[in-house]
Design goal:
heterodimer, A: 173 residues, mainly alpha, two-stranded parallel sheet, globular, B: 76 residues, 4 helices, 0% strand, elongated
């Protein structure tokens, strides 16, 4: 792997971690979870995470609303009408948002995915890691979108391999 | 607000646990909004802690970084 590729990988990891914190704050969450990592991965300019969704005809722009809807549906299931998001606003805390244990596991799993295909596509690896979660907000939101997580996992791994080949081609030129 | 016994607890543990997550998230956001408003209205950390039933240190640690409180502290 070239030095340029490694540096790009490090920058991408940092962008996802910072982006996830921002998404957590914007959604009013005091803890950063896998759902925020996923949203940050979808923001990456390489588009690998988005392509994984598009590969299975799922709309990556629908993920954020699906996350909000997952919380709202969970409240309605116990007879509580959710408070509209705009009335609660974003978290104004200046503290760094904590990473949930599941989010830490997700990042580790994304790292394992990276070793598996030797690609630096952290965005696709985050999608692959989230697709392997069984419980929690992220898989519930994705299920509600009608997404088959096994299909999403295959799509994310395919995009990671494609990105790896693209990087190898660029390095040869 | 319905009594706990009247709340329809979902049969599926995944649904019940998701409801717990959503409730915690809602309570957390209500707390942040309420503390920010209290600080804006001139409440002290001791008064806020008493109202929340926690220690002053706990409430300060959790909320001292909020935009409103930081701006007020800077102004004082």
């Amino acid at each position: 792997m070239s030095r340029k590729s490694m540096l790009h990988g490090t920058r991408t990891v940092k962008a996802v971690m910072l982006g996830a914190e921002e998404h957590a704050k914007a959604l009013g969450d005091s803890i950063t979870g896998p759902e925020h990592l996923l949203l940050a991965a979808l923001d990456l300019p390489d588009g690998d995470a988005r392509h994984a969704f598009e590969r299975i005809d799922a709309d990556p722009d629908g993920v954020r609303d699906a996350i909000i809807d997952a919380h709202a549906s969970a409240l309605r299931a116990i007879g509580i009408e959710p408070v509209p998001e705009e009335r609660l606003g974003r978290s104004s805390s200046r503290r760094r948002e904590r990473l949930s244990r599941t989010a830490v596991s997700t990042v580790r799993l994304a790292g394992d995915e990276s070793k598996r295909d030797r690609s630096r596509s952290f965005g696709a690896h985050i999608v692959a890691a989230v697709a392997q979660l069984e419980h929690g907000t992220a898989p519930r939101a994705l299920h509600a979108m009608g997404i088959d997580l096994d299909e999403l996992l295959v799509a994310a791994r395919t995009e990671a391999i494609k990105a790896s080949r693209r990087a190898e081609g660029a390095a040869r030129e | 607000m319905a009594a706990l016994a009247d709340l329809p607890i979902p049969d599926d543990p995944a649904d019940a646990l998701a409801a717990v997550v959503a409730l915690r998230r809602l309570a957390d956001r209500l707390e942040h909004a309420a503390v920010e408003r209290a600080v804006g209205d001139g409440w002290t950390w001791a008064q806020i802690a008493e109202a929340l039933g926690v220690t002053r240190q706990a409430v300060h640690k959790r909320h001292a970084g909020t935009r409103e409180s930081a701006e007020l502290q800077e102004a004082r």
